[in-house]
Amino acid sequence: MSLPPGNFGLPVIGETLSFLFDPQFVEKRYRKYGVVFKSHILGKPAVFMMGAEAVEFLLSTGFENFSWRDGYPETFHKLLGRSLFAQEGEEHRRNRRLIMPAFHGAALARYFETMDKLICKYLVKWEQKQEFKWFEEFKQLTFEIASQIFLGIDSSDEAKRFSDLFATLTDGFFSFPSLPGSRFHKSVKARDQILVHLDQVIDRRRQHPTDDALSLLIQAEDESGDRLSTEEIRVQALLLLFAGHETTTAMLTWLVLELARHPEVLEKARSEQQHFDSPITLDQLSKMPYLDQVLNEVERLHPPIAGGFRGVIKPFEFAGYQIPQGWMAQYSILFTHRLPELYPNPEKFDVDRWKDTKQKPFSLIGFGGGSRICIGLAFAKLEMKLIAAHLLRSYAWDLLPNQSLKPVIIPTRRPKDGLKVRFQSISRLD
Ligand code: HEM
Q1: Is the pLDDT of residue 429 over 70?
Q2: What pLDDT shows up at residue 21?
Q3: What is the residue-averaged pLDDT of the chain?
Q4: What is the DSSP string of 88-110?
Q5: Residue 392 falls within a domain, yes or no?
Q6: Which residue puts its alpha carbon closest to atom 37 of ligand 1?
Q7: Nearest residue CA, atom 18 of ligand 1?
Q8: Total domain count for the chain?
Q9: Ligand 1: nearest atom to the Cα of 241
Q10: Phi, psi values for residue 415, rounded to 5°
Q11: Residue whose CB lies within 8 A of the most ligand 1 atoms, among 247, 254, 371, for a mutation test
Q12: How far apart are CA 134 and CA 131, in angstroms?
């Protein structure tokens, strides 16, 4: 059996530069070689796989062939420590079970009011500002929501200081640790400052539990009565804050961009909101099928994370090709979502494609899938729906001229200039 088609590129660096800097890297090769192809990136041979069958294999049926830990660059492990990102097997299952309740069910219902209050604060701010870059604003909002709900930080200034440290931390994920003075070293410093702060908050919560997610993590017990150690809590909290805002920010930005580009969709989504009384409640949010369709289409066309990496720990066969141990494997979220056999006319933003369709498993994977599906999925969906419902009921926005809406991919996929808009309350129109 042969290796997949494709090219290893130059000696040593392989195709790393095109992978990092050419937004069409995967697309070009998919067009040439099909849904499974090989390359050589970030120091290793790699196989790229897309399509529902390939994704199901990688995330579910062939799970034992892959390691999550080995799939992410060393920078992620150095910066995020032994958090879920670096855990596998029983250790991962135990930690995930302990963390899960803080982001589901009853906990989400308790967060609703805090989330709503913060969103309303930003809506007032945006109305006063009138013109702004929405990506930056969403980033502040989602970070403030995460820092208040996860850690109980309730001062905007403190959240802002924290958010700046996170921006420096994030810069280090795609940097070169061995280069002296590189972004990586600044990133480590920022991470250490965040951890010092987290230690103080954890100490306070141990003495005086509240109803934030951190208090739930501190109190969580597994079947044998064991709890997470302080070291485990601080790195998991760091990961959750990191993973929990930039992704949501990107998806919200695409949501408002597509609504501005498609007035007929905006109108239908607005009229769905008219079926409900004010104020918005948690129960109402579960009865908005058209908004669900819109969010599915945004997730499909604009997934914030373009793909997930794994290390190949056992050789395997797929689609008639042999993949050796030691390679890297990437499942492509972005291109699975754009395969015409799964989504006819895939480039079109078409909300109606979700009307009555029975979805093929592993075909909509913006949050990953299988046992390592995004732990914040329900939290992120609640947050996005609540923001969307407010915007649809009471606000209008236009895109400002002279800006590039072209997507940039790293670290999360978003419009290049951050989406400049003019914003106002509907009651002020005319
Ligand atoms: C629109 C928002 C979000 C998107 C699109 C998103 C996307 C994803 C994806 C694609 C994965 C799997 C990556 C892979 O398979 O390699 C993932 C995992 C993860 N996400 Fe999210 N995410 C979002 C929001 C959040 C939030 C709000 C949190 C925190 C509360 C969060 C925490 C995590 C964590 C901890 C993992 C790793 C789970 C594990 O390994 O068990 N995410 N996310």
Answers
A1: no
A2: 83
A3: 93
A4: -HHHHHHHHHHHGGGGSHHHHHH
A5: yes
A6: 374
A7: 374
A8: 1
A9: 29
A10: -65, 140
A11: 247
A12: 9
Give the CATH number, domain containing residue 222.
1.10.630.10
Please tell me the residue having the least CA distance from ligand 1 atom 23: 247
In which domain, by residue range, is 141 found?
Answer: 50-428
Residue 430 pLDDT > 70? no
pLDDT of residue 89: 93
The two tokens of residue 368 are 């990953």
Q: Tell me how far apart the alpha carbons of residues 366 and 247 are, in angstroms, rounded to a whole number.
A: 10
Domain membership of residue 111 (yes or no) is yes
Q: Report, as an integer, the average pLDDT of 356-383.
A: 94
140 CA to centre of ligand 1 in angstroms: 19
CA of 102 to the centre of ligand 1 (A): 14
pLDDT digit string (tens) for 8-66?
999 989 999 999 888 889 999 999 999 999 999 988 999 999 999 999 999 999 999 99
Burial of 364 (0-12, 13-18, 19+ CB in 10 A): buried
Cα–Cα dist 282/112, whole Å: 7
In a domain, 141, yes or no: yes
pLDDT for the residue 155 = 83
At residue 384, the pLDDT reads 98
Q: Report pLDDT for 20.
A: 83
Is residue 394 included in any domain, yes or no? yes
pLDDT of residue 408 exceeding 90: no
Q: Name every protein residue with a CB atom under 6 angstroms from any ligand 1 atom.
A: 84, 96, 103, 239-240, 243-244, 247-248, 251, 304-305, 308, 366-368, 372, 374-376, 379-380
In this structure, which residue's CA is closest to atom 17 in ligand 1?
374
Q: Is 142 helix (H, G, I), strand (E, B) or coil?
A: helix
Question: Which ligand 1 atom lies nearest to the CA of residue 240?
Answer: 29
